[in-house]
Amino acid sequence: MVAGNWTKWTDTIFETIKAAEIKVGFEFTLEQMYLFEILLKKIYPHNNHIRDKIRQQLQILREYGYVEFIDDQGRYRRLR
Fold first, then answer.
1. Are 12 and 37 in contact (CB under 8 A)?
2. How many CA within 13 A on the CB side of residue 64?
3. Residue 20: DSSP 8-state
4. For 27, how many CA atoms within 13 A lie in the half-sphere containing its CB?
5. pLDDT at residue number 1
6. What is the full DSSP assignment across 35-49?
7. Residue range 35-80, pLDDT digits in tens
8. What sign results for the dihedral spanned by CA atoms 10, 13, 16, 18?
9. DSSP labels, 44-74
10. How many CB atoms lie within 10 A of CB 60?
11. What is the model's pLDDT at position 21?
């Protein structure tokens, strides 16, 4: 199952990962990404499902080889 195509949202989530200083090879959590929910709401004020969108975009980043899903505890690793 494909999560979707690379969009402006995907760019934004990847830029958020980089802005959080998550370097290549470093692990991060879904909870860390949720900390950007307020900022993302300002960028996308008409989206009322920010957390769902974060998860979806992480799936797209995984499909494109930018992040790796580590486990069911919401842990990821940046690959690029």
1. no
2. 17
3. T
4. 7
5. 59
6. TTHHHHHHHSTT-S-
7. 999 999 999 999 999 999 999 999 999 999 999 999 999 999 999 9
8. negative
9. STT-S-HHHHHHHHHHHHHHTTSEEEEETTT
10. 20
11. 97
